[in-house]
Structures are given as structure tokens and as C-alpha cells.
Amino acid sequence: MEWTPIKKTLHDGGVQPHLRDYAKARASFSWEEIRDELDGLPGGRGLNIAYEAVDRHAAGPRGDHVALRWLGQEGDVLEFSYRALRKQSDRFANVLRALDVGEGETVFSFLGRVPYLYIAALGTLKNVSVFCPLFSAFGPEPVYQRLSRGDAAVVVTTERLYEKRIAGLRERLPHLRHVLLTDVQDDRADGVWSLPKRMREASASFTLPATDPEDLALLHFTSGTTGMPKGALHVHEAIVMHYMTGKYALDLHPDDVFWCTADPGWVTGTSYGIIAPFVHGVTNVVDEADFDAERWYHILEEQQVTVWYTAPTAIRMLMRVGGTPREGYDLSALRLVCSVGEPLNPEAVMWGQEALGLPIHDNWWQTETGGIMIANLPALDIRPGSMGRPLPGVDAAVVKRTDDQVEEMPPGEEGELALRIGWPSMFRGYLHEKKRYEDCFVGDWYLTGDLAREDADGYFWFVGRADDIIKTSGHMVSPFEVESALMEHDAVAEAGVIGKPDPVSGERVKAFVALNTSYTPSDELRLDLLGFARTKLGAAVAPKEIDFKDSLPKTKSGKIMRRLLKARELGLPEGDLSTLETASG
Ligand code: AMP
């Protein structure tokens, strides 16, 4: 069904969107001009994300403005002005320096959404070390994979998470020199330090080293279909993109109160839960607690949130709870609601209009792009179900890939979504995987792995993934990682993992397993396998469903055909079976 576009009418009065004339903004756009709106390090010593995000505000008239308002799970509230955040992040950078942690070394956080996470991120960037946030719901296996592949030199975590998930791995992590515990007052052992103690002892003043815009800044793991997680590398230059998209897609103005519900363990929670709001000098609300509809509406009301960045799964959960929140809560401050991470169904866009009084602006990007690339921009008409149009400075196309070239598809035709290289936050590599990185590019184009179509008016529509990667509750899950964990169970001979459509989480992780001959399928074994996977992988990644099969369909070269498992599960056409190994399936 075609949904009627939601017309946006520009009027004078109130907060004016930064971008009012799309065609003009695209035609006159220059990255240099955007870059000039940032300060750069004093003395022309380069560009550092943390300096742009915090220090330049701390030193000026916005020094006392609330930068971070943290809402604790139990109702406690902590506020940090830009000046306070500057001092805290300076202290953290000095802690790293005192521990002899140098430029380019990787500092991981493995924390819930607590102030130390934000302080550690900024302090790490100041030290020109590389920050890598890990989602705190990961089980020991994903944690080990990421810490070892990322050559972690430092982990900032809590005592409980350390004991449960990391202590037992230490011998297998030769690069890990320091663990900084956020919730103990005394050091625990050599190399297991109290962060509060070190912060107290550290100076609140740190001189940022010269930072080349191409110096590495962030490492974000994302999932692959054929191997273990890929570490996408981002540089300090990415701040130019975070700033531009904060301005044009999120329409941030100095007096905004901004709330991004994503966890910094995922790229949205870093690019837009830490960097973009701070670089715009706004008040950034962070909620420690997990999703709860009533709590969320309270936050929107109490904090007078003006710009809200959330995700389709959360919106669908709110829809499920029902009601018309704008009648029960004062949502009059809310000016813009945006969403990212999965397809946003047109019903959800319209629900926003009804329930919140504002439509939801879908936008698209991915870990590799580092920032928003395509969006339903605030002043443009919304096409419900569409991801919107490319940001100024961004060239997107739908293409067909051949070996060494791409062919642009005419409007309306499906193909792979491609982006012309040259935007500042483009990833600069997959850690230790040169070939995998090079394979993402054909000529001037970066190929995203998403299938899409573009309509005659330049709006882009998501069709699906070109590969088997699963998106569940907005989180990328690699079927390979789940299969590998299941294979470690004595009973499992083969495992194949797919994403099964789910009305709330988008897709749920479902596994098919073939058992070793000495085992027989039973409900008890199914529960055992579900528990085994959950313990190894953590709740965010583990399968929710397991089915037993005598054998799994494989290609002639022995690769499990997830596509076929999925087609059979959903009763869809099985497609081309020429590569199927006939004995199995
Ligand atoms: P991640 O790298 O975890 O941020 O996930 C990026 C992937 O999420 C994209 O490649 C898409 O497959 C999906 N995605 C992100 N935003 C959207 C959107 N607005 N609509 C549909 N899929 C999306």
C-alpha cells in the first residue's frame, strides 16, 4: 500500500530548521565550510573529537551549560556542565598517561550507561588512544572475541562484570595491561586498579597532544556473515560528519535537550549518544535504565526533551503498550523525533503523529559509515516507509555490482545501496582485515550490503540485506558467531542460524541444529542448548528458538545454506538450488 506523504509546511516563528531548502543546501554544500564551523586544536595542531565536543564549549560562554544529565536507574540524577565534563575527561586522560597508555592503543569500556562511560570515551580521545565501547549484555564469548581482536590495552568496567566475564580470560588476552574498575575504592591487584582512586590522584588539566584528523579515534565491532566480528576503524575527522548530521538531520540548536536511547555499545549510541550532542553544546540526557514505556514518557515530559533519537523496536514496543501519550504527558517541548537501525514501518511513522503529535523521521546509516547518510530531513515531506534522502555532501545510488564496476539502476529498480566515497566519517579499515575492507569498494563507490530502491523523487526505500546478517532489536547479530558458539556444545554436529521476522524486534534469532549421533532431540536438550548459548553469548545475541534437523542444507563446498533454511522456515520460494549438495537438507 502507498502511504500519503506527510507534508511539512515551513512557517516563521519558533525554532527554524537549519536546513530549509534541500536543493540549495546540496548545491552549495562544501565540507570545508562545515569544517570551518569547528574550532580545531589551538595553535593549528589538528582536530580532536573530544576537544570539539567538550573543551571548546568549556572554555567559552557555554561552560556552565549542562552537558550531560544522567538519570540513574534508582531515580538519582547527576549533572555535568561542559566545564565539569572537561575536567573529568582531562583526569581520565591523565590516568591513561600515568599508566603509560599511548596514542593508538585501544581502551575498551564494558559498562552500562553510567557517567564513567562518557568520561572514559572523551578522555581516551583526548589521549589520542582508540576508544571501543562494548555492550554490557554481551556474554564472555563475544567479549573475548572483541577484546582479543581489538588488542585491548585497557578495559574500564565494574568489579562484577570483570569477575564474571573477563577475569577468566586474562591469560588469553596478552595485550590487556590494565583493568580500571569504576566501583571500587582500592586497587584489587596488580593491573586491576580502582578508577575513582586514580581519578582523584590525577590532575584535572590535560594538554591535548597534536591530533592528525586521520589519527584513529574509535573502533566499533559489527557483524559479518562469514567470519567473526569485524572491527570498523574511525578517525578524528569523523567529527565533521557528526557535527553536520547533528545540524541537518537532528536539527540541534544550542538550547535543545536531546535524548538518544541507543546504548554506546552500538555505533548510534557513540556517534549520537556522545559525540554529536556535545559537539553542538546541547544538554544530552542519558538514561541508565532499560526500556520501560511509562518511564520513557516521564523522561520526555520531565526533561522537556526537544529532540529524541530512538529506534524502531522501541517504537513498536511503545505502540504495543497503546494509549495516546500526548494526552497523558506534557510532550509540548518535543520538536523532532528520529529513528534509525532497522526498517521503520509506515504504521510507526503515523503512530508518532497520532500518539506523540509528531511523525517519526526515519534515517539510515551503518557502523561503517560512522554517521547518518540518508534521512527524512526535518523540513522535508516524509514518505512513510522510506529512509529519506541523502544528506547534503552525501551521494547515494542504487547499483548493480559487477566485478570491477557498478552500474546505476534506474528509479524504482532494486539493487545494492552504494555511497560515493569521500565523506569524513567513512571507516578507514577493518582491523587486521585489509582484504575484507578492499572488497567493500568498487571504483569510487562503497557498497553497503543493503538492498534498496530509489524512487523518482530521490527518496530511498530499504528492501533488505544482501547477506545473512540478522538485525534483532536493532542489534546486528552474526549468524556465524552464534553457530560457532552452538558448535561448542557436545551434542551439536552442525548449526545454521537465521533471522525470523518478528513483529516487535524485527527479527528473532533462530537456530537449526543437527545432532551428533549419540544424541536424540528432546525438549530438555533444546532448553539445555538455549541456556548454553545464552551463557556463552549473552541475551542480546543468543538464539530465542532452536529446531532440530537430521541434517542441514549445504552447498557443494560444504557451506550451510542459511538462505534455504530461511525460505523453508517461512514457506517462501527456495530460489536457485544449483549449488545445493543433494545428499543433505
Ligand atoms: P549497524 O552497523 O549495526 O548500525 O547496522 C546497520 C544496518 O542496519 C544497515 O546496513 C541496515 O541493514 C540496517 N538499518 C539501519 N538503518 C535502517 C533503516 N532506517 N531502515 C532499514 N534498515 C536500516
Descriptive overview:
By secondary structure, this protein is of the alpha/beta class. The chain has 2 domains: 34-451, ANL, N-terminal domain (Rossmann fold); 470-570, ANL, C-terminal domain (GMP Synthetase, Chain A, domain 3, 2-Layer Sandwich). A 9-stranded mixed sheet has the order 2-1-11-10-12-13-14-15-16. Strands 17, 18, 19, 21, 22 and 23 form a 6-stranded antiparallel sheet that branches. Strands 4-3-5-6-7 form a 5-stranded parallel sheet, sandwiched between helices. α3 packs across α4 and α3 (49-58) packs across α5 (115-126). The protein is globular and about 70 Å long. The model has no long low-confidence stretch (mean pLDDT 94). Residues 222, 266-267, 340-344, 362-364, 366-367, 387, 448, 450, 462, 465, 471, 476 line the site of adenosine monophosphate.
Top keywords for this entry?
Rossmann fold, nine-stranded mixed sheet, six-stranded antiparallel sheet, alpha/beta, 585 residues, GMP Synthetase, Chain A, domain 3, binds adenosine monophosphate, 2 domains
The CATH class name of the largest domain reads Alpha Beta
Number of strands: 28
Q: Using only CA atoms, what is the Rg?
A: 24 Å
CATH architecture of the largest domain: 3-Layer(aba) Sandwich
Global shape: globular
Strand order of the largest sheet: 2-1-11-10-12-13-14-15-16
| Main sheet attributes: strand count, strand direction, barrel closure | 9 strands, mixed
CATH topology of the largest domain: Rossmann fold
Contiguous uncertain segments of 5+ residues: none
Distance between the termini: 36 Å
Heterogens: adenosine monophosphate
Taking all residues together, what is the mean pLDDT? 94
Strand content: 15-25%
Q: What's the number of domains?
A: 2
Helix-strand category: alpha/beta
